Amino acid sequence: MSLNITFLGHAGFLLDDGEHRLAIDPFLTGNPLAVHKPEQIQAKHIALTHGHADHVGDTVAIAKRNDATVYGVFEIYEYMSEQGVTASPGNPGGKIETPFGWIAFTQAFHSSSYEGRYMGQPTGLVIGMGGVTFYHCGDTGLFGDMQLIGEIYKPDIAAIPVGDRFTMGPELGARAADLIRPRHAIPIHYKTFEGMLTDDISAFTPDSAPVKKMEPGETWAFEK
Ligand code: NI
Ligand code: MN
């Protein structure tokens, strides 16, 4: 079982199981760390953690060009439908079957709006693809039920926001990893915006999982 995991920078990923491709939070235009152009993203599936612009990013353009389906909470589904984009709704607690596997929506402590519009509850996403379980925490503060999410889904990989200010910083991110107990912890959502997000994540040193620091554009051929 294997999954190619490409970090798009900030909170964005492209997951490829050899048959399907899923983009998560594809924020490329206006992302100073991104190395991909939106036109380079080929994916029939796009999942969004919440409605903030640094996560929705290039979703509409990528979805239209690829005739892709967008997965997100109900308000994101409504917005994408209005844009003429195919979408599939969920909400925290729910799990949906998809052509590539499944997505479970989990809670995240954050906010969610897009151009002044309410975009529903922010979420984390637990994704099953290529036999690998990938937990994208979304933008969130620390919460104790991360332990429960870890127990239920046993993620191989957790992508954890550590840039501080809008999410956990590196110390709390390490606590999150110790609650989730994934096999590998990828730090995300740091350094992107100078002066806003911290670029020093040296304190992201969880006890229970090795840290896999990925550079934007890097692909990790993950074997389980
Ligand atoms: Ni956000
Ligand atoms: Mn964000």
Q: Summed up, what is this model?
A:
Helix content is 18%, strand content 32%. It has 224 residues and is of the alpha/beta class. The strands form 3 sheets. The chain has a 7-stranded mixed β-sheet with strand order 6-5-4-3-2-1-15, covered by helices on one side.
How would you characterize the overall build of this protein?
The chain is of the alpha/beta class and 224 residues long. The protein is 18% helix and 32% strand. A hairpin with a 2-residue loop joins strand 1 and strand 2. It has helices at 53-56, 59-66, 74-82, 146-153, 170-180; strands at residues 2-9, 12-16, 21-24, 45-47, 69-73, 86-90, 95-98, 101-107, 113-114, 117-118, 123-129, 132-136, 157-161, 184-188, 219-223. The chain is built from five helices and 15 strands. The protein has a seven-stranded mixed sheet, with helices on one face. It has a six-stranded mixed sheet with strand order 7-8-11-12-13-14, with helices on one face. A two-stranded antiparallel ribbon has the order 9-10. Helix 4 crosses helix 5. It has one domain: Metallo-beta-lactamase, Chain A (4-Layer Sandwich). The chain is globular, with a radius of gyration of 16 Å. Nickel (II) ion is lined by residues 50, 52, 110, 139, 166.
